[in-house]
Each structure stands twice: as C-alpha cells, then as structure tokens.
Write a structure and sequence with these properties.
The chain is mainly β. It has one domain: Thrombin, subunit H. The protein has 4 helices and 15 strands. The strands form 3 sheets. It has a 7-stranded antiparallel β-sheet, with no helix packed on it. The protein has a 6-stranded antiparallel beta barrel with strand order 10-11-12-15-14-13. The chain has a two-stranded antiparallel ribbon with strand order 5-9. The C terminus is likely disordered.
C-alpha cells in the first residue's frame, strides 16, 4: 500500500485543492512599495434549503491596506475565469469607499457583485472557490487554540523580489493565544499576504481531520514582538450579525460551489 501523507501534507493538499481558487492579490495602483495585500471570497450562509444553499458572497481582507486607496490593481488569475480573459489586471475605482469595516476587528468586507458585473460586461464568468460556512471557524474551533502554538497556514500572494509577480503561496507558521486573549500568527508573513485567510487542521475521530479557516491575517500592531494578529471568524460572524441587512448587500446570484470532503483514512 502507498504510504499515507502526513497531516501536514494532507492539510496543504486540502487548502490548495479546496480553497486554492479563493484568493486574489491586490495593491494600490501605481504604488509599488508597501501597498500589496490579498483578498479572498467568502460565502455567508443565509439559508439552507432542499434546492441548495442561499448565500451572501463577499470579498474579505484586512482593513488597513484598503484605507485611502482610490485606485486598486487586482491581478486576475486566468484559472479563475471562464473563459480566460485577455486582461491580466483589473483596476477598481473608489476602492476605499467600497469596503465596510467591521468595527475594531481590523477586517473589511465588500459585496462581490461588482466583480461579477465586471466579468459579465467582459464576456466571462468567475470560477472561484470560496471560504464557506463549513470551513469558517466557529467558537468551538477558536477555543481549541491555547497558549501552546499549533501549526497554521496562510494562503496568500507574495511579491516576487525581481518582477513583482503575485504568485500564490501556502505559508507555514503557527498560531497561539496571547495573554490578552487574542490569536496571533507566529512566523514569517511575506509581503503581500496581509488580509489572507489563515487555516489550521482539527483532528477528528480516527485518522480524519477537518480544515478550518481561523480568520484573517492582520498587520502587526506592535505588541507580542510584532507578531501578526488574526481576526478570527467567530468574531467576524458576530460582527456580520450586528450589521444592518442593507449595509452589505447580497449578490444577485448564488454562486455554484464544489462540495468535497478531505480526510485521512487508514
């Protein structure tokens, strides 16, 4: 029998295979220094019916990289488009005004309708993955994280040192609970990975595990030796629940989702 992958290998495979199409790199247009970040697609489950799930779809990132940005440049990944577009870049105008900041969490969200409208106008459709309700962490998942660091993963877009290419990377580090109760990323976070989703594995019975999106990677705040805080998804859920329903509008269409289970077996 072939050797089973380690939990680390299986987790990386699950991240790339299940949500590899959930991220996009962006930066302030015409500004090459210190303006790079990552956003990702998130589906908030509104209702589950026999005919399928009804979701609100948003773009999510760290709030700080969006502030004061009038024009943002988004790198279009051809594999996320059907058919592949001719343009490699998308310029979003009035970028800062399009985001809703979730209180003091450091997280910003934007309805994804604008990107769908752009694609329709250009004659193609987005073919993305999304962070879904089943992956986004809940209270019990975050409660598992204690003072002892556990292995975690950031799925973001680094900045090529020579050509500025925004290639996707799975960055391995650790998360732990600080003395003030916040969750923090310990390890290198490459330039361009601010706003990216942070993942961990939760072991289940036997040899199975579930993939959990812990939250959003934020800029360092000067505490805890500069380690990056993580805005956890349990807090994001509560902040969304507290918003007026008209503040963040739903997309006009429920995007299709691929349903797959990831586990190790004996």
């Amino acid at each position: 029998m072939p050797e089973l992958p380690s939990l680390h290998e299986a987790t990386v495979d699950a991240i790339v295979g299940r949500v590899g199409g959930a991220t996009l790199p962006f930066q302030e247009a015409a500004c090459r220094e210190g303006s790079h970040a990552t956003l990702f697609w998130f589906n908030e489950l509104v209702e589950s019916t026999p005919d399928g799930d009804v979701v609100r779809q948003y773009l999510v990132t760290a709030g700080e990289p969006t502030r004061g940005v009038e024009f943002a440049e988004v790198t279009i990944r051809p594999t996320l488009c059907d058919p592949a577009p001719s343009a490699e870049k998308l310029i979003l105008t009035d970028f800062a005004e399009g985001w809703t900041h979730l209180g003091d969490l450091g997280v910003a969200m934007m309805p994804s309708a604008g990107l769908h409208t752009y694609a329709d106008r250009k004659g193609w459709r987005w073919n993305t993955d999304e962070i879904t309700d089943g992956i986004a962490a809940r209270d019990e998942d975050i409660a598992r994280i204690g003072a002892e660091p556990v292995v975690a993963y950031v799925l973001g877009h680094d900045v090529g040192p020579d050509d500025g290419a925004r290639n996707q990377a799975v960055v391995v580090g650790k998360v732990a609970r600080a003395g003030d109760g916040t969750i923090r990323w310990g390890g290198r976070l490459p330039q361009g990975c601010l706003g990216a989703p942070v993942f961990m594995s939760v072991l289940l019975s036997g040899d199975s595990f579930k993939l959990v999106c812990v939250g959003v990677a934020l800029p360092p705040d000067g505490r805890d030796f500069g380690h990056h805080p993580v805005a956890t998804f349990d807090a994001v859920r509560r902040a969304l629940d507290a918003l007026d329903s008209e503040t963040l509008a739903a997309t006009s269409e429920t995007p299709p989702r691929r349903r797959r289970w990831w586990q190790r077996r004996n």
